[in-house]
Amino acid sequence: MNKLIFCLLFFAFLSNASAQFDANYDESKVPEFKLPDPLKTFNGKKIRNSKKWESRRRPELLNFFTQNMYGEVPGKLEISSVDIQEERKSALNGKAVRKQVDLVFKNHGKTLDFTILIYLPKTEESVPLFVGYNFFGNHTITEDVDVVISEAWARNNPSFGIINNQLTEQSRGVRTNRWCVDKIIDAGFGLAVIYYGEVDPDKDDFSDGIHPLFYIDDQQQPAANEWGSIAAWSWGLSRAMDYFERDEDIDESKVVVFGHSRLGKTALWAGASDERFAGVISNNSGCGGAALSKRRFGETVWRINNSFPHWFCKNFRNYIKNEEALPVDQHELIALIAPRPVYIASAEEDKWSDPKGEFLSALYATPVYNLYGKKGIQQTEMPELNQPVQNTVAYHIRTGEHDVTAFDWEQYIKWAQKFIQ
Question: In its keyword annotation, does this UniProt entry include Protein biosynthesis (predicted)?
Fold first, then answer.
């Protein structure tokens, strides 16, 4: 009998655990919640103009997100050296210039470097630029055989020929569909990409990547309020921006940071924390990115911190199954980018990323943009599929799944041509 009771209790436990892993995709089960007002300070004072936003509200919001979600970078570290691996004046069938640039960092006896692959249209003028991370190496975004294959750790993906956590030639060009390099160059923009694993390998291990360069004494991992991987990847984007300011071929005043999925979360945080970026594009970024946390739809604060405990600072775990206690939400992350342009994009089949929650964040960030006389999202209902709303705050939801498509890039380019000035 004791064995029977034990078995019943054990299966009940498994059933309950399984239920906890089930994501909610039913709007009727979204809990009631009240969003914090981006134009009201934590102590209840109303913000009525951009000057007060910048002096009072923006700093306290930025500090909260830093200390309780993404984590603080524990110090400053400048580029130790820049190594131009190669520069070719006639790439992509003669229409572009290609550069492969190594940025090297040294601190506390440790060294880290990462490579920026840059394509620029052939012109005598400095050009605007999209910059973003890729998931499986710079060589995956193009079939260009001269792009160097990274030796950094990578997540295994046998379909791409990635085994034993090592990138290989077999994966060259497997993600060309996500980057539309020719469309970008033809539109007069440059493109810079970085393999995110070179800045911080995407695993729950803070013994490699950029973190150890900042450790003090016998420190083994970041403190509870210090940076997780998303903030580390954002840090890397800012260091790339340091380089762009030196490169005369790039117009550093017109650099747009782009990211998809977890790297969309990264792009939003980079744009919020580094005001040098002229614009931000978040593609299917979901929980911890553009989607409202309080909706508990699709991926949740609990799930993301359990599945990827290294992405955020440990303090964020205080809000696991406790989203109602958050004094902020992701619409205020988007508001931190104001008055610079921001584009939030969703996909119809990507319920995990909560398209409605992403749209609502763009909508409820709009009052802050209005302080600057900028136009945001004015309609309260989501737009029709494949019908973008393109203002300073832009949004679209397209047909399809969690991915980056040619349709997405066509909208981003059109929007950037109008709003990145």
Answer: no
Q: In 162-236, where do the E strands start and end?
A: 190-195
**Number of other residues whose CB lies within 10 A of the CB of residue 139:** 25
Cβ partners under 8 Å of residue 11, min gap 6: none
Q: Could you report the per-residue pLDDT of 147-186, keeping only the tens digit for each?
A: 999 999 999 999 999 999 999 999 999 999 999 999 999 9
CA–CA distance from 356 to each of 37, 192, 359, 377 (Å)? 19, 30, 5, 13
Q: Tell me the CATH number for domain 36-420.
A: 3.40.50.1820
Q: Are strands 96-107 and 81-91 parallel, antiparallel or unpaired?
A: antiparallel
Amino acid at 94: G
- Bond from prior residue into 339 cis (ω within 30 degrees of 0): yes
Q: What is the pLDDT of residues 239-284, one digit of tens each?
A: 999 999 999 999 999 999 999 999 999 999 999 999 999 999 999 9
Q: What is the DSSP letter of 157?
A: B
Kindly report the pTM of this predicted structure. Answer: 0.95
355 phi, psi to nearest 5 deg: -55, -40
5 Cβ contact list (under 8 Å, min separation 6)? none
